[in-house]
Amino acid sequence: MSASSRGTTPGSSAAPDPLDVLGALPGVSDSVDSVRQAVDRVYGHRVMRRRSQEVSSEAALRGARGSAALADADWPLEEVRRRSDFGAEPEARTVGAALRLTAEAGQLLDVWRQSPVQALARLHLVAAGGIAADETVGRPRLAGESVTGEPADLEQLLALPLPDAAEVAARLDGLAGLLRSGSAAPALVVAAVVHGELLALRPFGSGNGAVARAAERIVLIGSGLDPKGICPAEAGHAELGRAGYLEALEAYMSGTPDGVAFWIGHCAKAVNLGARESTAVCEALQRGAA
């Protein structure tokens, strides 16, 4: 398997690669293999030869709908598809933010490679679009600032210890350094760690769940695993449910090898379900039903 399909481009440093080590955790190799096979099946579908843009667009829509559902705005897909006004009420704003984030993710690949923290700040600005200007928007929390206004997807998480601003800054800097230097870890592992770290840290005053899921999307696309963004993990996370999402996240936050492996496996299931969604789209396009 090539470096681009496994993860980020390996750096030249001989220092240990902490992300690659996670690939050896129990069950992770099987999760990586299952995702690779699922993604390959979608990309190998005959519809992808001529109508990949349509599949990508539909996957983006379904991914945004899934992310919004995890944030307690569980709209039917057709409602998300037909609506044009997303500023009227809280649920509509949540759906609108998810749509904007999904679109923005594909535009931030170069920024992400150079400065992941800058890309995250941009994602937070996009997520907060339409909300009154606030000095906390677009930057990590400072000392004394709390996390407020999170939707139901993080209600349980808010009861867990919140890292202070100094720890957030240090861990974000460490994560960004790992991403910039490159890792031989499989893309699934890198994406899961980015997603889990952002939820554990809750670096912003609000919108952390939506930003974390968009960051996972960026890694999956930018790594070369899913370059067209046709396997929306967000849709899979929504299908697995908020309870399962939070259970897996708590396992990750435990810091134990089994807990981290459990979270990576959960993310693998989400990508597999996203791939299944797009396979169904391909089948519908082939039948002329979509």
Give average pLDDT, whole number.
Answer: 89
Indicate the low-confidence ranges by residue numbers: 1-13
Strand content: under 5%
CATH class label: Mainly Alpha
Which overall shape is indicated by the principal axes computed on the Cα atoms? globular
Oligomer: single chain
Largest sheet: none
Q: Can you name the CATH architecture? A: Orthogonal Bundle
- The residue fraction in helices comes out at 55-70%
Cα-atom radius of gyration: 18 Å
Number of domains: 1
Count the DSSP helices.
Answer: 14
Order of helices and strands: HHHHHHHHHHHHHH
Could you state the CATH homologous superfamily? Fido-like domain
Description:
This protein is mostly helical and about 290 residues long. It has one domain (about 15-285): Fido-like domain (Fic-like fold), CATH 1.10.3290.10. Helix content is about 65%, strand content about 0%. The chain is built from 14 helices and no strands. Mean pLDDT is about 90; it is low at about 1-15.
Task: Walk me through the topology.
Elements: H1 3-6, H2 18-22, H3 28-43, H4 48-70, H5 77-82, H6 90-105, H7 109-114, H8 116-127, H9 165-181, H10 187-201, H11 208-222, H12 233-240, H13 242-253, H14 257-287
